[in-house]
Design goal:
The radius of gyration is 25 Å and the shape is elongated. Helix 10 runs antiparallel to helix 11 (273-306). Helix 3 (60-67) links the parallel strand 2 (48-53) and strand 3 (73-78). With 318 residues, it is α/β, with parallel strands linked by helices. The protein has two domains: 7-217 and 309-316, Alpha-Beta Complex (Spore Coat Polysaccharide Biosynthesis Protein SpsA, Chain A), CATH 3.90.550; 237-306. The longest helix is centred in the last third of the chain and has 34 residues, at 273-306. It has an eight-stranded mixed sheet, with helices on both faces. It has helices at residues 3-6, 23-39, 60-67, 84-95, 116-124, 142-157, 174-180, 190-197, 220-234, 237-265, 273-306; strands at 10-16, 48-53, 73-78, 101-104, 129-136, 166-173, 201-207, 313-316. Bound molecules: uridine-5'-diphosphate and magnesium ion. The site of uridine-5'-diphosphate (UDP) has 16 residues, from strand 1 and helix 4. Residues 106, 108, 110, 211, 216 line the site of magnesium ion.
Length: 318
């Protein structure tokens, strides 16, 4: 086999939602990087940069179409906004048939494209998945740092298999994507799925940068709902937790009941409006929370049984 034949064909998949302000900047950096890797004989000359337009309402798709006239660039347009995870998933599903390996990275390039080479080297050394891990969050706001780290700690506590400080920046051999297809869940949380698939994996470390232009698509509300989705998709620990609360409450009720009975028999029962109301309120409050948690899981089952498509493609360029 000639040297050229051995080079991997890489496809970089970038989800984009209303990213008109940053797309050209990112495309330029990616083009430079891919040319550098081709010149270093790390990847094949046919490698691709694929932008997935996740139903943007600005000129994102127009920019992607313009870019696709250049070598290496291509694009997929989803029929509407399916969300970050589904956009990455759609990109991976299409590109796995056109490349040996994929890299998924956010379109704002806050994750460091300079570790692409380390990822490719790790793959050459036998890793099928290479996780990009943030080893430094100095540039994140204090709030983002605390909430993000709290989230990873919570995932560990719930025994969800995940890579600490890794988001959706990863290198994947297309062979792994063939296995990903077997995971049928509609509500996707990719960073929880890849560690379950297995295969040899490694981490590469980098510093996460600030967003150069445009604004975050993950305000606090979306971040919390994403985190909760991750937990409920991979762990039933909250259900077990409320079962434990139930046991504790039951034990408290028994002791309370004994005390009430004794007080009644000895004629010392108090005419307590406040105390009985308080107990009532506490117990019904806890009950409501527990029902809410069960409801969340029922909602999840409801969404899953419908088996709606994770994405719908409008157009694929080239
Ligand atoms: N994104 C997407 N669909 C959405 C929301 C976000 O494809 O519904 C993309 C977005 O364009 C970006 C990536 O997901 O490429 C991550 O979003 P962002 O950078 O705003 O998140 P942050 O880095 O602030 O957590
Ligand atoms: Mg970002």
């Amino acid at each position: 086999m000639s040297e050229v034949n051995k080079l991997i064909k890489l496809a970089i998949v970038l989800p984009c939602y209303n990213e008109e302000e940053i797309l050209e900047f990112s495309a330029k950096l990616l083009e430079q990087k891919i040319t550098e890797l081709i010149n270093k004989n790390k990847i094949s000359n046919e490698s691709l940069i694929c932008f997935v337009d996740d139903g943007s309402r600005d000129t994102t798709w127009k920019i992607i179409e313009d870019l696709s006239t250049k070598n290496h660039f291509t694009g997929i347009k989803l029929a509407t906004n399916f969300g970050h995870q589904n956009a990455i998933y759609a990109g991976m599903m299409i590109m796995k048939d056109h490349a040996d390996c994929l890299i998924t990275i956010d379109a704002d390039l806050q994750d460091d494209i300079n570790v692409f080479e380390d990822m490719i080297d790790a793959h050459e050394n036998g890793s099928m998945i290479v996780y990009g891990v943030r080893d430094n969050r100095e540039l994140d706001s204090y709030f983002k740092r605390i909430t993000a780290q709290g989230f990873y700690k919570l995932m560990q506590l719930m025994k969800v298999k995940s890579v600490y400080n890794h988001a959706d920046f990863r290198f994947i051999d297309s062979r792994v994507i063939e296995e990903l297809v077997k995971f049928k869940e509609v509500s996707l949380f990719l960073r929880g799925i890849f560690p379950i698939i297995g295969f040899n994996s490694t981490n590469v470390y980098y510093q996460r940068k600030i967003r150069v232009a445009g604004e975050t698509k993950y305000p606090l509300r979306k971040m919390l709902s994403f985190a909760w989705n991750g937990i409920t998709s991979f762990s039933t620990a909250p259900l077990r937790f409320i079962f434990y609360i139930g046991i504790i409450m039951f034990l408290i009720s028994i002791s309370f009941g004994i005390w009430v009975a004794i007080a009644a028999f000895t004629g010392e029962s108090v005419k307590g409006w406040a105390s009985s109301l308080l107990v009532n309120l506490i117990f019904s409050g806890i009950n409501m929370i527990c029902l809410g948690i069960i409801g969340e899981y029922i909602g999840k089952i409801y969404q899953e049984v419908k088996q709606r498509p994770r994405y719908i493609i409008d157009k694929i360029l080239k």
